[in-house]
Amino acid sequence: MIKIGMIGAGGWGKNLLRSFYYLPGVEVAMLADLVPERREEARHRYPGIETTDDYRRFLDSDDIQAVVVATPGASHYAIARECLAAGKDVFVEKPMTIHAGEAEELARLADDKKLILMAGHLMLYNPSVRKLKAELEAGALGDLYYLYFQRLNLGKIRKSENAMWTFAPHDISIARYLVGSPALAVAAWGESYVQPGVADVAFVRIRFPGNVIAHIHVSWLDPHKVRRVTLVGSRKMMVFDDMDAAEPIRVYDKGVPADLSYDTFGEYLNLRSGDIHIPWVKSAEPLRLECAHFIDCVRDRSRPLSDGWNGAEVVKILEAAQMSMESGGDMIEL
Ligand SMILES: NC(=O)c1ccc[n+]([C@@H]2O[C@H](COP(=O)([O-])OP(=O)(O)OC[C@H]3O[C@@H](n4cnc5c(N)ncnc54)[C@H](O)[C@@H]3O)[C@@H](O)[C@H]2O)c1
């Protein structure tokens, strides 16, 4: 039995709490939250959980091996550092920190102390994202040309974090995972309409090696709820629609033949438009898979897919994108 402590049972933390609570081989021994009602609700829903307003109580406990941090992003660095310093394995929600240097320090500390540090990049545990990766690796698309992401909705509008820091960690982590190489440069544009200084919409462009480009559009001020990833390759194209639970992925046999000639009347007829294939994707809750992966890593002492360095890479891109947004869209080399 692996005993864990949790810090933060707010909007998202309560989902993590439920997921870890029902995971076999795990005991959520203690929950820390600053809000008494949240502690009371947790005690009511999950019998046996001890609650506190001071997470330092479990740092002294030899029984608690790992800590899950689901507090707002600005507090992640200080809390995770304390937990690692106390010898605990740590899961930190995204964004891992709000400064890349801090995230790298955490990753280094975890390595030095041989502790597990995992960033909560939920989408990497989504079976559809795994399927996209498998199709890419199998060469289904040919060479990957470019990819773009739409993560749009109306609400929940945050005060302390803009829409890019809230949503784009998901898409940046997917882009990095699918492309398989570190980003080279990033540029971003965004604007604040509802609250001064808190961007409601952002357009982020990332350049990867091999001329691969990614474009990310995030907004909490949009008429549509959209969660979509589109990949365009030399042979085929692929779309992942996270709002379509039954058929999330479509592979389009569309493209441009290598021998395309531009000097004939029927040039556009040479474009290839063939079958649409809907691959089967295992139905499983990504959050449960993510939590199970963390526990497996704690048990086996193995490196998480979204380890501290992966979390730090995403923060580095976000930090540069923020700098670019503030400069009016300059391309920042990473
Ligand atoms: N993976 C996802 O899909 C996803 C979705 C939403 C949010 N998140 C992330 O989860 C994290 C939390 O977001 P949220 O929406 O739950 O925030 P929230 O503000 O709703 O909840 C944060 C909770 O942390 C508690 N807290 C803050 N500081 C604390 C401390 N020092 N000790 C104990 N408790 C403390 C607060 O009392 C609150 O209950 C953020 O990093 C956010 O980006 C991830």
Name the descriptors.
alpha/beta; six-stranded parallel sheet; binds nicotinamide-adenine-dinucleotide; 32% helix; nine-stranded mixed sheet; 9 helices; 334 residues
Please explain how this structure is put together.
- The protein is of the alpha/beta class and 334 residues long.
- It has 9 helices and 15 strands.
- Strands 14-13-12-11-7-10-9-8-15 form a 9-stranded mixed β-sheet. It has a 6-stranded parallel β-sheet with strand order 3-2-1-4-5-6, sandwiched between helices.
- Helix 7 packs across helix 9.
- The model has no long low-confidence stretch (mean pLDDT 95).
- Bound molecules: nicotinamide-adenine-dinucleotide.
- The site of nicotinamide-adenine-dinucleotide (NAD) has 22 residues, from loops.
- Nicotinamide-adenine-dinucleotide binds next to loops.
Question: Can you give me a brief rundown of this structure?
Answer:
This protein has 334 residues and is an alpha/beta fold.
The proportion of strand residues reads 25-35%
Report strand order across the widest sheet: 14-13-12-11-7-10-9-8-15
| Morphology call | globular
Assembly state: single chain
Reading the helices and strands in chain order gives EHEHEHEHEHEHEHEEEEEEEHHE
Helix and strand composition category: alpha/beta
The description of the largest β-sheet is: 9 strands, mixed
